[in-house]
Amino acid sequence: MNITIIGTGFVGVVSAAVYASLGHQVIGLDIDPKKIESLKKSQVPFFEPNLENLLKEQQQKKRLDFTTDYQQAITSADIIIIAVGTPSAPDGQADLTYVFAASKALATYLKENAIVVIKSTVPPGTLEKAEEIIKPLTEVNFYLASLPEFLREGRAVEDTLGPDRIVIGATDDFVFETLERLHQPFDCPIIKVSPPSAQMAKYAANAYLATRITFINQIADLCQKNGADIQELIQAIGLDNRIGDHYWYPGFGYGGSCFPKDVKELAAYSRAIGESNNLLNKISDLNEERIPKLLTAFGDKIGGWDNKTVAILGLSFKPNTDDMREAPSIKVVEYLKAFDVKIKGFDPKAIEVAKNFLPQTDKLSLHQTIDEATTDADVIIALIEWPEIVSFDFSHVKTTKQQWFIDGRNQFSPQIISKWGYSYLGIGR
Length: 429
Hints:
The protein is an alpha/beta fold. It has 2 domains: about 1-195, Rossmann fold, CATH 3.40.50; about 195-429, NAD(P)-binding Rossmann-like Domain (Rossmann fold, 3-Layer(aba) Sandwich). About 40% of the residues lie in helices and about 15% in strands. The protein contains 17 helices and 14 strands. It has helices at about 10-20, 35-40, 50-60, 70-75, 95-105, 125-135, 155-160, 175-185, 195-225, 230-240, 260-270, 280-300, 330-335, 350-355, 370-375, 385-390, 415-420; strands at about 1-5, 25-30, 65, 80, 115-120, 140-145, 165-170, 190-195, 310-315, 340-345, 365, 380, 405, 425. The chain is globular, with a radius of gyration of 24 Å.
């Protein structure tokens, strides 16, 4: 098939490379000429494991190209996938400006029976609005569908090649058959639903995962007060097959490009349709309060933050990505700025990106190694569970002065950290 993907961000580039690897002819389309020139050289503007190699491989096989020309990209496309950003509007709901701009721009170039697929995260009703934009601008028959993505940054290529499921939202058998055939090589369940159900599936999945994180953080707070250990508790409840032992991450809360945005958008959408008194409207508030609450409690235990040198290890919002959007490190630095604190940051991949997200002051320095970041540190905060951080031997950077070790993801053994001479502080332990 001939496939065009509009939008060359995280989802668009990964999808383009993967669909090309299945043998399809794929064009990535974007209005940003600098981004397109970079991608033509197989240079990905963000870090994602295995993506650059896959991109190079498919371009060498002449299956994948990139352009800014709508006519070139759309005219022969059997399937056009819209994968542009949907940032939050001032009222909290999804801003669909880019989705509708793409819909308008592609309309005049559609071939007969082309399928326009919206992969961007959008609320129910978006397909109908896109159809209203496209229909007056074309004389050919076309179809619309929703194809939500469920990619995890840091594992996006793996998730796309081996998904848990494919969700197709459509109303026509032709669309279901075509998109089912496109995704057949993935050998996973294919769920065929209405467009509103497909759109809600993405929001519901992310809101549920965010709820699990928020829930376990609330339980960890209780454990902190009563002497229970949150990791022992997770082991105990995880054997209940209705609950499971996966995706329990007590720590500094959730971040990234999806969870914060999608939870807030779903909450705003619920308010817009008259359902404001629900759990969704509380999750974001609890997550926003999480870091100040934790740091205030840790500050009490270490005798205050003033006059401390603090090493923050892990600046991206999760391991295996350089994405700093809504990263816990940003809020930690913002909180510590109110004190007379020297901050030293380290991340395996996000140092350059961090320069655009963290304030440039003489109180903050970014380092290429853990050794450099922890030199003279009074407090070490292991914030994100990068393998390089979790496997690091902190015994050889221990000094003779009192030092606190804050285990932000409960990845370390309290006994070993204490044996090395640190005062260990975990989450709910």
